[in-house]
């Protein structure tokens, strides 16, 4: 699932790269595979009892199982695990990391740069639409098992689902470590149970093992034609969550993820799907809940409880992924600053974003109430997933050609295969759009417009400041020695690198003073996940009392200006870092929409609104509030 588009970075940080291989292996099972690992709850059910139900006979069961087997093989095992995980951005994965990696390679080609940028940002936007459905369908499909274990409790499915989801979102402020300690062990048990249930039922119809032959998939599609093609829209549910393998690569490394997939997760999923197929051949009446019917009657209720835990884990990864993707979008300049709370003193990836958390909760609960069942939710599920899969295939194809130099016919055939398979899945899921699939698309389009409007608006603001600004060299040349100097250091933060900060001009104009040391400071976010400490701060002496300092961060890092200045070697420039003698001066920009702008008026108004709701610069950069002075003005764009 696109949770995936950097999914679960926050939760995954519970197991940093420096941990032992065993810890990384167990943690990867808990975090990376939560989404794809809970797909057996609904994938087979929706294929045979969903919007386009299939006949429960040998042709269709073996055909669907063959499609599931080859989808897991081609999309997950080959495309993601074997190939896409090679494209790491200094160890990090995910769609934004892939975008940053690729854009450096095509920097000299403006058309291709714009094309890849639009694709990467739309992939991130699709994540937001998809991330709302994942917790809803996962938890709801697990709790629906109560209808099998205790039919009298059917009326409590929705209330219990909402209670579980509200509790999950409510504990986010405590940090993912609250539930993170159980992630790995619970999911190891979960995959073990999947395998055991599958093996237990395969004996009812051993011929399901023949489904590994692609002949059955092709025969099914050939026989059913359009109906068989539409079945791909449900089969794709078996591979949702594949991008999490790539997205969480930076936290666990390639080897633990690959070994966990090949040795445990993939075999367990295949055995369970084969078991469900055998059950359906032997007992077609089990189609309403094939997963829970795999278990003996006495084990159904414990299985419901275990499934609920597993879906909570999958949902936790999505929520943490939402925090991570949002922070990266902020750092890369696609979203305004938002409040970020660090929930761990040791792991920088464990963050909590109140606005994102409660907005997600309201929308997820609304989806549960609006759709009412996992079957109806499945109608809205998959469109965003397949859209992201196509975008990833296009981007990795460009990486193959532009970075790796794979330009032979085999590379081209492989790219065509990946894009072709993903496109078939997308076309099949596109039929769901009138039945709920429109929801993630609407959310994605809204998110894309917001991301691009903010990026465009910031570009216009910086251009306006540069156009109206005064070059630093000109300012220093014209600066009168008669200006009153006061003790201490004044740090003026500005996004414009060559112009004098407006706050400096306002301070001199209205207060008629300059500090004995003046620092013009700019924060630059690089298109790499992290910046080496030795490259964090670049400084330049403009004259004995004026300095230019540039602080560099990666898009996975948390900007902390006082900490960066404290660790920088500024004494060699002529002054020591003295926290209590530093004042931070900030620009307070009030954006006013103008009709004669490069952006449409509605985009200007959206940008102005987002600008007003952004978290203050002082909070975002961790400035001591009692040392901050804000001086503002109006900017018309």
Number of individual domains: 2
Strand content: 5-15%
CATH architectural category of the largest domain? Up-down Bundle
**Quick one: overall form?**
elongated
CATH class of the largest domain, named Mainly Alpha
Q: Output the strand order for the largest sheet.
A: 5-6-4-3-7-8
Uncertain regions: pLDDT < 50 for 5+ in a row?
1-18
CATH H-level superfamily of the largest domain: Amino acid/polyamine transporter I
> How many strands, what sense, and barrel or not for the largest sheet?
6 strands, mixed
The name CATH uses for the topology of the largest domain is: Amino acid/polyamine transporter I
DSSP, total strands: 8
Measure the end-to-end span. Answer: 38 Å
The average pLDDT is 84
How large is the radius of gyration?
Answer: 27 Å
- Class of secondary structure makeup: alpha/beta
Task: Tell me the number of helical segments per DSSP (H or I, 4 or more residues long).
Answer: 28
Walk me through what this model shows.
There is one protein chain. The chain folds into two domains: 2-436, Amino acid/polyamine transporter I (Up-down Bundle); 463-636, no CATH class. A hairpin with an 8-residue loop joins strand 1 (341-342) and strand 2. It has helices at 9-12, 21-31, 34-37, 43-49, 58-83, 95-105, 110-143, 146-149, 157-170, 177-202, 214-224, 226-230, 232-235, 243-247, 249-252, 254-282, 290-293, 300-331, 354-371, 374-378, 383-402, 409-430, 438-468, 472-478, 502-511, 561-567, 601-613, 617-620, and strands spanning 341-342, 351-352, 484-493, 513-526, 537-543, 546-554, 582-592, 628-636. It has 637 residues and is α/β, with parallel strands linked by helices. The chain contains 28 helices and eight strands. The strands form two sheets. The protein has a six-stranded mixed beta sheet with strand order 5-6-4-3-7-8, with helices on both faces. A two-stranded antiparallel sheet has the order 1-2. The longest helix has 34 residues, at 110-143.
């Amino acid at each position: 699932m696109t949770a995936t588009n950097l999914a679960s970075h926050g939760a995954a940080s519970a197991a940093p790269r420096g941990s032992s291989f065993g810890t990384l292996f167990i943690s990867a099972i808990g975090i990376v595979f939560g989404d794809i690992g809970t797909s057996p709850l609904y994938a087979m059910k929706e294929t045979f009892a969903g919007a386009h139900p299939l006949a429960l006979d040998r042709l269709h069961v073996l055909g669907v199982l063959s499609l599931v087997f080859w989808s897991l093989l081609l999309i997950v095992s080959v495309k993601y695990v074997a190939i896409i995980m090679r494209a790491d951005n200094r160890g990090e994965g995910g769609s934004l990391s892939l975008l940053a990696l690729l854009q450096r390679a095509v920097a000299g080609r403006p058309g291709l740069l714009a094309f890849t940028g639009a694709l990467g940002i739309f992939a991130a936007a699709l994540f937001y639409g998809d991330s709302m459905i994942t917790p809803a369908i996962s938890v709801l499909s697990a709790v629906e098992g109560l209808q099998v274990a205790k039919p009298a409790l059917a009326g409590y499915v929705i209330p219990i689902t909402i209670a579980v989801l509200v509790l999950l979102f409510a504990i986010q402020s405590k940090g993912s470590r609250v539930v993170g300690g159980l992630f790995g062990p619970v999911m190891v048990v979960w995959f073990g149970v999947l395998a055991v249930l599958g093996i237990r039922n395969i004996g009812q119809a051993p011929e399901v093992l023949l489904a590994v032959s692609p002949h059955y998939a092709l025969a099914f599609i050939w026989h059913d034609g359009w109906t068989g093609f539409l079945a791909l829209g449900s089969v794709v549910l078996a591979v949702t969550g594949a991008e999490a393998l790539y997205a969480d690569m930076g936290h666990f490394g390639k080897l633990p993820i690959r070994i966990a997939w090949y040795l445990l997760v993939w075999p367990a999923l295949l055995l369970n799907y084969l078991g469900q197929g055998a059950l359906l051949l032997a007992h077609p009446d089990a189609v309403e809940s094939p997963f829970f019917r795999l278990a003996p009657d006495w084990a159904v209720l414990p299985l419901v409880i275990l499934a609920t835990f597993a879906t909570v884990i999958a949902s936790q990864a999505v929520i943490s992924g939402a925090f991570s993707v949002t922070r990266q979008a902020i750092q890369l300049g696609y979203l305004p600053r938002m409040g970020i709370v660090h929930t761990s003193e040791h792991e920088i990836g464990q963050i909590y974003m109140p606005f994102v958390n409660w907005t997600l909760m309201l929308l997820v609960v609304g989806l549960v109430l609006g759709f009412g069942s996992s079957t109806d939710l499945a109608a809205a599920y998959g469109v965003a997933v397949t859209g992201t899969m196509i975008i990833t295939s296009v981007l990795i194809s460009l990486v193959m050609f532009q970075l790796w130099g794979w330009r032979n016919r085999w590379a081209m055939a492989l790219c065509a295969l990946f894009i072709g398979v993903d496109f078939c899945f997308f076309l099949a899921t596109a039929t769901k759009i009138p039945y709920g699939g429109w929801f993630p698309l609407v959310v994605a389009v809204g998110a894309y417009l917001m991301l691009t409007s903010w990026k465009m608006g910031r570009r216009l603001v910086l251009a306006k400041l540069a156009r109206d600004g005064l070059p630093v060299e000109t300012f220093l040349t014209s600066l009168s020695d008669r200006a009153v100097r006061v003790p201490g250091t004044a740090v003026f933060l500005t996004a414009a690198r060559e112009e004098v900060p407006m706050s400096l001009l306002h301070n001199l104009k209205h207060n008629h003073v300059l500090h004995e040391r003046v620092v013009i400071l700019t924060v630059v976010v690089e298109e790499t996940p992290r910046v080496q400490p030795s490259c964090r701060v670049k400084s330049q002496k403009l004259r004995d009392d004026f300095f230019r300092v540039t602080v560099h961060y990666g898009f996975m890092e948390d900007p902390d200006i006082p900490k960066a200045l404290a660790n920088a070697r500024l004494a060699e420039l002529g002054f020591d870092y003295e926290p209590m003698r530093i004042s931070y001066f900030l620009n307070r920009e009030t954006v006013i929409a103008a009709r004669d702008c490069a952006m449409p008026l509605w985009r200007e108004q959206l940008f102005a609104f987002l600008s007003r709701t952004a978290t203050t610069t002082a909070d975002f950069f961790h400035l001591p509030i009692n040392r901050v002075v804000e001086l503002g003005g109006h900017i018309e764009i």
